[in-house]
Amino acid sequence: MRHWHYSIWVILVLLLWNISLLSRPKKFIFIAIGSAPENRNRRDACRRSWLSWRCPTVAYRFFTELNTANREQSVSLNVERQTLRDIEFQPFPQGRQVMQGARFLYQAAWALGHYEFDFYLKTDDDVLLCIQKLQHLLSEKRNKFFWGKYWCKQDRSYPDESFLLFSTDLLRFLVKNREFLLFDEEVSMAWNFGFLSRFLNISIFDDRTCIDSQQGYLTYFMHQPGFNFTRQISSDLSFCDKYLFSHHVESTIDMRIFKESSIIPPSHRIMIQHPRDTCGTNYSIIPCRKSRKLPSIQIRTV
Ligand SMILES: *[C@@H]1O[C@H](CO)[C@@H](O)[C@H](O)[C@H]1NC(C)=O
Ligand SMILES: *[C@@H]1O[C@H](CO)[C@@H](O)[C@H](O)[C@H]1NC(C)=O
Ligand SMILES: *[C@@H]1O[C@H](CO)[C@@H](O)[C@H](O)[C@H]1NC(C)=O
User: Fold this and answer.
1) Which of 74, 125, 255, 287 could connect to 294 by a Cys-Cys bridge, CB 3.0–4.6 Å?
2) Into which EC class is this enzyme placed (predicted)?
3) CA–CA dist 175, 109 (Å, integer)
């Protein structure tokens, strides 16, 4: 009799577990945005601008720390979380350079546990993303796929941290195998992936033309302090016609950058280029250059 009781409980728990897995909302893209507790202005700028262009098939969260915020900050963070419902707290020490790899895995595991999605984008709170264009360009589910922009520096060739897009099967592989992979939780996911991606049979899209990040900005005007919209000629404002993403954008950049942009032409397709081709002989990495834990070997294309 006791056994009966026990198995009924087990079945019930399994059933509930399955129901909870089945009931995860289905999205196309999940976006994880790293944000320091004090960056309310940047979070608001994202909400006001590119996040407001979000379609129902895109979900996002800001990930920040409550434990390192001072008392005043934690009160306002809690209020922000309760009212806007787009913030998750993560248990990490202060400083954006600390435990970057572990932060990434924490956020990815959170997303996988709460949503079902086809793609996962990790980004920052000081960016501008043409979110509709991204959805359009991805258009359908892909497997074993990564999209980013590589640094073509010899022995330090890895994707920039501000835009890391994974297909969900690849993300799940990384999260599930964190114990078995050579992975340094202290250093960034970008560096870890720069190394790991050499051994994985995946398609890598090294996007040199649409991702505007610090390897050399494609749109200098956006990164100058005191950027004045009114003065800027409208061709410069149609950002999303030409580009997809920009890093280090001031929080004063607003919706006008989108309003000037037309809906992208349907002929636009992503043209996948591997960093082997874009970086040539510079596509090499020595993992221990940025990590005490990763091996001291040179990996390069021959
Ligand atoms: C790599 O992946 C492709 C496509 O998924 C597959 O056809 C191919 O057999 C794989 N190669 C190896 C060595 O596993
Ligand atoms: C921006 O430029 C316009 C046109 O040149 C000028 O009238 C305006 O005062 C400028 N705004 C700021 C904040 O500098
Ligand atoms: C390779 O690196 C060298 C030196 O850092 C640089 O001058 C060159 O432009 C790089 N090549 C490519 C294809 O980026």
Assistant:
1) 287
2) transferase
3) 7
Task: Record the pTM.
Answer: 0.88
Q: Quick one: DSSP state of residue 223?
A: G
Which sequence spans correspond to the domains of the chain? 2-300
The pLDDT assigned to 185 comes to 93
CATH of 2-300, one of 3.30.420, 3.40.50, 1.10.3470, 3.90.550: 3.90.550
Mean pLDDT per 10-residue section of the chain, whose length is 302 residues: 64 65 88 95 91 91 89 93 96 81 97 98 94 90 97 96 98 94 94 95 95 90 73 66 88 63 60 93 95 93 76
Which atom of ligand 3 lies nearest, measured to the CA of 152? Answer: 14
For the chain, how big is the Rg over CA atoms in Å? 21
For a mutational test of ligand 2's pocket, the pick from 227, 230, 232, 234, i.e. the residue with the most ligand atoms closer than 8 A to its C-beta, is 230
What is the Cα–Cα distance from 160 to 214, expressed in whole angstroms?
Answer: 8
Give the 3-state DSSP-derived string for 107-160, with helices as H, strands as E and coil as C: HHHHHHHHCECCEEEEEECCEEECHHHHHHHHCCCCCCEEEECECCCCCECCEC
Number of other residues whose CB lies within 10 A of the CB of residue 180: 7
Residue pair 213/163 in contact by the 8 Å Cβ criterion: yes
C-alpha to C-alpha distance for 288 and 176, rounded to whole angstroms: 23
pLDDT of 255 = 57
E strand or H helix that includes residue 176: helix 168-176
How close is the Cα of 231 to the center of ligand 2, in Å? 6
Burial class (CB in 10 A: 0-12, 13-18, 19+), 71: exposed
Nearest ligand for residue 279 CA = 3
CB of 3 closer than 6 angstroms to any ligand 2 atom: no
Q: Which amino acid is at 172?
A: R
Q: Check the CA dihedral 44-48-51-54 and report its sign.
A: positive
